[in-house]
Each structure stands twice: as C-alpha cells, then as structure tokens.
Design goal:
It is a single chain. The chain is mainly beta and about 240 residues long. It has a single domain (about 5-235), classed as YmcC-like fold, CATH 2.40.360. It is built from 2 helices and 15 strands.
Length: about 240
C-alpha cells in the first residue's frame, strides 16, 4: 500500500480489531468553543505531505442544538492524491454521534461508510472494493464515532495521571475498538500558528500510543497530533 493511503488509513485509525471490554460510567465533558475551522499540516518523517481541515458548527434539529462536524484530509505523494472526507452530526450536550458518513478515495479506488446510531447499536453500511457490507454492532454509553475523536478529546478534562477508557466505531471495518486516554500534564508548545499553553494527552489503542496537545484556552483546539510509530504529525497552521 502506498504512503498516501497509509497516512489516510492511519488518521482514521483503521484497525481490524474488535476487542471489547465492559465500559465504565459515561465520561464528563467540558464544552469547547464551537463554530470554528482549523487547518493542520500533515508531516510524514520531516516532509510536508498534506492537510487536515476540521470544521465544527452548531445547528438546530427540531428543538435540539446539535454539532455538525466535518473533516477533509488530503495527502499527496508521487503516486497521486488521496482524500478522506467525513461528516458527522452529534448531540451537543454529550457529543454522542447521531449519524456519520465517510468517503476515502485513493488511486481510483473509493471506500465509503454510513453509520446511524441509536442508544445501544450502530447500524453500518459500507461500500468497499470487495463489495457492499451491512452490519449492526452493539455500543455502550462510552461509544463514539472514530472521526470525532480529535474533537472529543479536547472536551475531556483529565488531570495528569488520570485515565479514561472509551470505544470508537469504525464504519469501514464494521468494528468498535477500545481507546484509553491519559492526562500527561501541561506543556507550552510552538507550531506555525503560534505558541500555546496546552494540555497534553496520550491516546492508546491496539498497542499504539499517540500524543495529542490541546489549547487550554476556551476554544480547546487541537494544536498538535503526533504518532511516533508512523512518524506522522499534524500541526496547527495560522
């Protein structure tokens, strides 16, 4: 598989693993500032390789305020461009997913999924090169959509050493996987967008550790994402 598609799949945490554990109580969230668009540069090794654009906005669905979350990842290589686009609708109060769609295109191949969420199940429809797939999987009180994870983590307020476990649903593989998030502490970091006081978290999934920094200010934006195992990082641009 070529580097561009590997980066796309890495960002979507596409692991064919479905280990399940009993979930604890629903995590407590602190709402970030909404109605923002942020752009990130993707760096593989030391080479700029693409962009990640994340937009969130509040909207009304009947009497409920919801969050509309969209993300577009573009990765370029000598073999062409790969694109990953996702769109989610979330309940604003607890950021639980209502519906999500995802499309990945790379070198002429297209993969897509659509997930509808209820209180206790995720109904998944996926289109893959191998054919269409429909599956329903059970979910718990701490289950979320994989494509909201970088936004969700900014809303989780963990002290240094504190750890929470949740699970994320991955439509393209039709699975749910556990993720542990640990508070590391506070750190000042510098990126192209400036210097920021951040909360640093470590995300662990399927034996893989990823460091993520979030702005301490009201917006709680993701400032940097670093996957050392794949030498890939995303850093906030001006």
């Amino acid at each position: 598989m070529k580097k561009a598609l590997l980066v796309i799949l890495g960002l979507t945490v596409l692991f064919l693993c479905c280990a399940k554990k009993k979930e604890a109580l629903v995590i407590n969230l602190s709402q970030p500032k909404w109605n923002e668009t942020n752009k990130y540069q993707i760096v593989v090794d030391t080479t700029p390789s693409g962009t990640y654009v994340l937009t969130n906005k509040t909207s009304q669905f009947g009497n409920e305020t919801i969050i509309e979350l969209t993300a577009v990842t573009l990765v370029k290589s000598i073999n062409g461009e790969s694109r990953d686009s996702s769109s989610l609708i979330l309940h604003k109060d607890n950021l639980k997913p209502i519906k999500s769609t995802k499309i990945i295109t790379s070198r002429g191949a297209t993969l897509s999924s659509e997930i509808t969420y209820t209180d206790n199940k995720a109904i998944i429809k996926a289109k893959l090169p191998s054919g269409d797939k429909s599956i329903t999987i059970p979910i718990g009180p701490n289950s979320f959509d994989n494509d909201e994870i970088t936004t969700l983590m900014g809303a989780i307020d963990l002290k240094a050493g504190e750890e929470k476990e949740l699970s994320v649903v991955i439509g393209l593989s039709g699975t749910s996987i556990p993720i542990k998030i640990k508070g590391i502490g506070e750190e000042k970091i510098k990126v192209p967008a400036g210097e920021f006081d951040c909360r640093k978290y470590e995300m662990n999934l399927v034996g893989r550790a990823i460091d993520v920094w979030y702005e301490k200010a009201e917006s709680k934006r993701m400032i940097k994402y670093a996957d050392t195992q794949s030498n890939m990082a995303m850093i906030l641009l001006p």
